[in-house]
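Researcher: Next sequence.
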Amino acid sequence: MNESTEAYVHGYRSNEKRRLTHQATTLAELLHCDTEFPDGSTVLEVGCGTGAQTIILAARNPRTRFTSMDINADSIAQAERKVVQAGLTNVEFRQANLFEPPFETDSFDHVFVCFVLEHLAEPAEGLALMTGLLKRGGTMTVIEGDHGSTYFHPDSAAAEAAVKCQVTLQRNLGGNALIGRQLYPLMTTAGLEQVRVSPRMVYVDSSRPELVDGFTRKTFIAMIEGVRESASQAGLTTLADFDAGVRDLYRTTETDGVFCYTFFKGTGQKEK
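Model: Next structure:
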């Protein structure tokens, strides 16, 4: 089983890299308020991408040693630059396929996986391999979104159809944009014990302008806009219909608009 860069539905354009940064910084407290690792422990971050999550984790856990890996060499180079610019010294990077990890079994105290499983055709296999890299008693943290949790006001069938285009494209590439709801069975099947999954809802209205801009506009809508051409070429929509849906998504960012989305955070432990 190979992890393919072609299966990344969002692509590797500069606007996608900016979107990932907005997502990480906007959601840092929501997703990572309880992401803590003991001093001196070792953490493997799988699928680090351009380092959007790496910076947050390493800064919040300065006495933890991180090994951050990704299959894409350009992404790793960007992540390394970010770490250097941030003055962080507790991260090393490895270019590697998660299905062919260059590590011995029982190597790490913790494994951290964020927004990776959704892009895998075999997420259960991937999790099982990552579990094998944990020391006995080690822990894993997994974070995923679920596009099926999206709802908003004013309601719009056109906007829902645009979101569905992204879900369908990702499924056609072998991924699953609805994977958040599956974290518990996936983690238990991978052999983890004491699995706990907590939903982390992003609720946005005009009283939270930082979320209106950072999440609704620059994270979620930017993600949907990014599949415009692909959705049209795949025959899932017309450009006119897709653009109408995106306009309705932007309508939710106005004074009387509301937008909601739920992430799921799972933790589990390898048998001692």
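Model: Residues 53 and 178 are 21 Å apart (CA to CA). The mean pLDDT is 93.
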